[in-house]
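Quick one:
INPUT:
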């Protein structure tokens, strides 16, 4: 698995996941349960991971839809 993007914005992660699923690219969010440590205030970014073989294609999907790949 390779990290595709990292964000504290759950709407970006949901939109990116939906776009990837539409392109038949499997993805997985990491750090979802960090809210237990942060008290639910959303300061720790979540990571969206894809298979290494799908990473280049996933990057193209993000760029085509103006989703920033950098950190917040």
């Amino acid at each position: 698995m390779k990290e595709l993007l990292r964000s504290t914005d759950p709407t970006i992660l949901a939109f990116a996941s939906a776009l990837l699923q539409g392109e038949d690219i499997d993805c997985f969010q990491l750090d979802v349960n960090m809210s237990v440590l942060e008290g639910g205030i959303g300061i720790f970014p979540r990571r969206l991971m894809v298979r290494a073989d799908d990473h280049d294609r996933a990057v193209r999907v993000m760029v085509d839809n103006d989703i920033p790949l950098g950190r917040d």
